Amino acid sequence: MLKVTIDLEAIRHNYRFLGSICGSQMMPVVKADAYGHGLVRVALALASEGAEAFAVGTVDEGLGLREHLHEADIYSLMGPVWDEDYQKLTNSGITSFIHSWEQLKRLAQEIPKEDIIEIGIKFDTGMSRLGFEPGDAGKLCDFFNDNSRLRLKIISSHLAFADDPRMAHQVGEQVEILDGVSRIFAQAGLKHKKSLANSAAILHSPGAWSDIVRPGIALYGGNPFTGTSCEEKGLYLKQAMKVRAPVLSVHNLPKGRGISYGLTFTAPRDMRVAIIGCGYAHNYSRSLSNRAWMLYKDRRLPVIGRVCMQLTAVDASCVPLIKPGDEVFILGGNGNSSIEVHELSAWWKTVSYEVLCLLGKNEKTYINS
Ligand SMILES: *Cc1c(COP(=O)(O)O)cnc(C)c1O
Q1: Mean pLDDT per 10-residue interval, the chain, length 369 residues
Q2: Residue ranges of the chain assigned to CATH 3.20.20.10
Q3: What pTM value is reported for the model?
Q4: 261 noted as active-site residue
Q5: Ligand 1: does its nearest atom lie under 6 Å from the Cβ of 199?
């Protein structure tokens, strides 16, 4: 029932903006269906803007994109995970980031004798999530020199604190660790590119740019610095996603009456309420109950009572002309009162990334292709 609109020109604008800040090659991150914006449409829009490298989340996403982009460098941030992924990688032209010895050794066994594949190596330089230890660099050099059918193309790591201006020293430490690894590879004669920066680091940590940067959230218009001292760095970004929902019914709610499951909201005065066709079945979280706002023309209407599976109530007392068949924005809008993704994510008690991924699972249409 929700209608998601993706403005591809906003995404191209954000790409150009990031390119004007940082001269490194860009590898737009289009994992998780381009953060809900649609993998293929977003990647094609960015390719038309000059992007030649893309980071998908999985081998399958990479194969899907390869059908549309024959020439681009496609990187899979996660390497082979399921048994079948190893075979799928062969001849795919996808560069997988490998994070463990098990993956690496199995890949060496499974690629056909006549094949050569290029891979990336992911290092854990401080996030303790996925990746080789920096101390593995020497053994990795030996491995590559013994297994010439696996060719090292790029080394990478991910920053834990790029979006927190108070933690610049942490970013610096991770940069140094990856530089150290890079030197070891270079001394062993293994040419490679290096990549570390996400959106926040592109905007604020030039020391982390190196060869290729990996912008994600900023491409979609999310400002990684909202609420910090660096907020202005992301103010030129344009939010690409808008989400509308239909008004199903409008009626009075007399003073003292409760509304929705559990009657968690009681009318403090005579009110007019609108029932909106939107709920957690559309990934509009139940945690927005009694917390969020929706936009009707230029007025914001508070959500009252619990968000249900497909229905949510708002206080529409201030907009007497609202009627069934109208629509409200739950994200975005036209004009100054437009709901920004950082606002919706704060009401939702999460981050913009999650809001975009989840709402983007609804039916999408594209403008400014
Ligand atoms: C998601 C992701 C990115 C992009 O991060 P943003 O904060 O969205 O810019 C970059 N690198 C890796 C490894 C990622 O998983």
Answers
A1: 97 98 97 98 98 98 97 97 93 95 95 91 96 98 95 97 95 98 98 98 97 98 97 97 98 98 98 98 98 97 98 98 98 95 98 98 97
A2: 8-230
A3: 0.96
A4: yes
A5: yes
Q: Does residue 219's CB lie within 6 angstroms of at least one atom of ligand 1?
A: no
Nearest Cα to Cα of residue 319 among 277, 269, 271, 278: 271
Atom of ligand 1 nearest to the CA of 202: 9
β-strand 312-315 against 299-304: which pairing, if any? antiparallel
Class of domain 8-230: alpha beta
Torsion (CA) 37, 41, 42, 48 in degrees, nearest 10: -160
What tokens appear for 207 in the block?
């020391």
* Region(s) of the chain under CATH 2.40.37.10: 241-367
E strand or H helix that includes residue 248: strand 241-253
The CATH homologous superfamily to which domain 241-367 belongs is Lyase, Ornithine Decarboxylase; Chain A, domain 1 (2.40.37.10)
Give residue 113's pLDDT.
85
Residue 142 and residue 147: Cα distance in Å, rounded? 9
Give bridge partners of residue 244 from the DSSP assignment: 3, 329
pLDDT of 235? 95
